[in-house]
Amino acid sequence: MNEETQQDRPENASAMTEMGEWLEMSPSSLRRGDIVRGTIVRITPTEILVDIGMKAEGVITGRELERMPREIREVLREGDVIQVQVVSPEDRSGNILLSLQRALMEEDWQQARRLMQDGEILELTVNGYNKGGLVVKVGRLRGFIPASHVVPQEAGEEKLPVEQRLKRRVGQKIYARIIEADPEANRLILSERAAQQELRRRQKEELLARLEPGMRVKGRVISLADFGAFVDLGGADGLIHISELSWRRVSHPREVLSVGQEIEVEVISVDRERRRIALSRKRVEPDPWQQAITQLREGQLVEAVITRLTNFGAFAALKEFPGVEGLIHISELAEHRVHHPKEVVREGEELVVRLIRIDRENRRLALSLRRVASPEYAMLDWEMAQARLRASEERGPEEAS
């Protein structure tokens, strides 16, 4: 009897192994929602049979085939290896119900989560809208861009009714980032605003790396402040300090610039660590000082306009050289003692003053009102008058007029 038992053992062991493999590969090892790979063994108008390595074959039902996009259904062939999702490990008929569509959707959700984690910017087409925002397609998924995350395309657009703004975007390309991907709630939320912020950050990095002091670039004025003007250089904003707006004195940037104006500027400095760009507008224009010092002589009379008063004197702009100013020190305003310049002159007043000193190194002019009629300059005044007369005669009567 012991011999018979020993002889039967190989057969029993083999049977147990086969039984274990059958149990391991049985539908009970599958769970709803599992993604498995399989080979298409038969395609009929009503179903697709898929070998997924189980005792029973999996079935993609006719109902799913009807809903399946034509471009997917038409490329399927027997022998193709595909990924499918388990809908039911075993239905009433003992079939394993599978879904190709759900597997593709799950693949898209995984891709969406990866794109969100990586902060990728997507180029999409707006397929539709509702009162809450824009509808887009991300692969096979339906994405939504809330109205609060949609960026106005032009100035003043934010004043339009929300639905009117959204309707205008249908059919257009849009750049957006995924900010929420929740397959369980079927929520795929995107943001155009976040994408633009990221794009501008990247553009700013590129621009900061490329810009060097002395370069001339074009930009658009985007805002004005008391201290200067901000200019969009195409990805990064730079500041023109009020002192760099013009060679002439400017009280407020609005005197020389307006929002939306296209201008050329010169790069003064680039602080890559603090991500700041300093610009100048006046440096792309001719320097009136250089012209002035070649034509002016110490001691000559010049026409000027009082621009501002201080406790120590009055500043005056030379009419012949816009942008060039000089200082009439309080001691040079009159022969008598002056406590404040307003006792003698007022802002906007036009008068003749004498240029008494040119400081080329510091770009300063010293002017005098009290020395206008001083006899010490009589000979110079006569020479200057003769020079003007000769110049007038050389130009002829028509030009002189």
Full CATH superfamily name of the largest domain:
Nucleic acid-binding proteins
Based on Cα principal axes, name the global outline.
rod-shaped
- Briefly note the structural class of the backbone: alpha+beta
Poorly predicted spans: 1-10, 12-24
CATH architecture of the largest domain: Beta Barrel
CATH topology of the largest domain: OB fold (Dihydrolipoamide Acetyltransferase, E2P)
Strand order, sheet with most strands: 1-2-3-5-4
Tell me the total number of β-strands: 20
**Rg over CA atoms:** 41 Å
Number of alpha- plus pi-helical segments: 8
Write down the CATH class of the largest domain: Mainly Beta
Helix % is 25-40%
Q: List the helices and strands in order.
A: HEEEHHEEHEEEHEEHEEEEEHEEEEEH
Largest sheet: 5 strands, mixed, barrel
What portion of residues belong to β-strands?
25-35%
N-to-C span: 143 Å
The total domain count is: 4
> Quick check: average pLDDT?
86
Description:
This protein is an alpha+beta fold and 401 residues long. It folds into four domains: 34-105, Beta Barrel (OB fold (Dihydrolipoamide Acetyltransferase, E2P)), CATH 2.40.50.140; 119-197, Nucleic acid-binding proteins (OB fold (Dihydrolipoamide Acetyltransferase, E2P), Beta Barrel); 212-284, OB fold (Dihydrolipoamide Acetyltransferase, E2P), CATH 2.40.50; 288-384, Nucleic acid-binding proteins (OB fold (Dihydrolipoamide Acetyltransferase, E2P)). It has eight helices and 20 strands.
